[in-house]
Amino acid sequence: MARRAGPGGRAADRFPAAGVGSILCLRSITAVTALDTPHSLIHCRTDRQWRRRATASLREHGYAVVAGVLDADAVAKTTRALERVQRLIRESYGEQALNACGDACVVRLPMKFDRQFLSLLETPQMLDVVDDYLSPAAVLRFQVGVLYPPNTPLESRPANGNFHRNFPHLESTRPVAVDAALLLSDMTSRGAPLYVVPASHRPGVEPSVEALAREERMLAAPAGSMIVVDGALWHREADVSDEPSVFVSHQFTHPLIKPHFDYARALGDDVMSSLSDRCRHLLGWNFRLPGGLGDFYKPEHERPFRSSRLRGSADRR
């Protein structure tokens, strides 16, 4: 179903159609001037209404910037852990394999190698927004660490720096996916800022590059902040960055959407059993498929899947 236009006008008026696709090339524009307007931060430690404001911004604009989510110690600890895991993965799988997948600057499945990232998954402010914007039943689709050194080439960035959406697969009048990036470095005009197109998660037509470039806004925030965007929001990363950029990105979706990994199998039963109920739920523990009739006919509390988590009953039909 097509998304409704926002209060700024009809979708077709703001974003003229440009065909079908999920990546639009900015470099086809001969001259683009971004509006370098800092977005007001929502401070979760000083603003008692931060949660309501963040969710409202997501619904209306398709994004929200929340400051103060991680303190300095958490930022430093997570950065060290991410660098350590990146070295370990490079040693285990080789630079060639990572480069072939476009993962030279990306760390996938970091929770497999360091429990710091399991703790990060339960960041209260992040889950508050996920609960309010998607659903308390939402699950993790992926968690990836990103470490961009200065002057990282566009070829190593998502969509080569072009406009894109993180979850272009479904369109709905209700949110389907939300991305939450926890910043481990300052995001500034010189440090790989994010350019977003407000309310572009709403139109039911594909916008033109010209329309996106005209409407884009730059987001900047200090380390420890959280940038949350609707999975359907059009955005891009800066073409040039003079400073390193480090963050951990999460995408949450509804349980019916397949995650990037079978987290229960990747982490193993021992690790999964040591986690909180909420963390196991986020990792899809309650939505595993039965391995056969033996699993299907087990009592509800012993089954590898929990139908009641979705329907509020133990009905197996």
Short note summarizing the structure:
The chain is α+β, with helices and mostly antiparallel strands. Helix content is 29%, strand content 17%. Helix 2 (50-61) links the parallel strand 2 and strand 3.
CATH third-tier fold name? Jelly Rolls
Order of helices and strands: HEEHEHHEHHEEEEHEEEEHHHHH
Largest sheet: 7 strands, mixed
Return the CATH class: Mainly Beta
Rg over C-alpha atoms, rounded to the nearest angstrom:
20 Å
CA(first)-CA(last) distance: 28 Å
The order of strands across the largest sheet is 2-3-10-7-12-5-4
The CATH H-level homologous superfamily: q2cbj1_9rhob like domain
Mean pLDDT: 83
**Percentage of helical residues?**
25-40%
Number of strands: 12
Structural features, described:
The chain is an alpha+beta fold and 317 residues long. It has helices spanning 11-14, 50-61, 72-93, 95-100, 116-121, 124-133, 209-215, 263-267, 269-273, 277-282, 293-296, 308-311; strands spanning 23-24, 42-43, 63-67, 106-108, 139-148, 163-164, 177-183, 194-196, 217-219, 226-230, 235-237, 245-253. The chain has a single domain, classed as q2cbj1_9rhob like domain (Jelly Rolls, Sandwich), CATH 2.60.120.620. It contains twelve helices and twelve strands. The strands form three sheets. Strands 2-3-10-7-12-5-4 form a seven-stranded mixed sheet. A three-stranded antiparallel sheet has the order 9-8-11, with no helix packed on it. The chain has a two-stranded antiparallel ribbon with strand order 1-6. Helix 2 (50-61) links the parallel strand 2 and strand 3. The longest helix has 22 residues, at 72-93. It is globular.
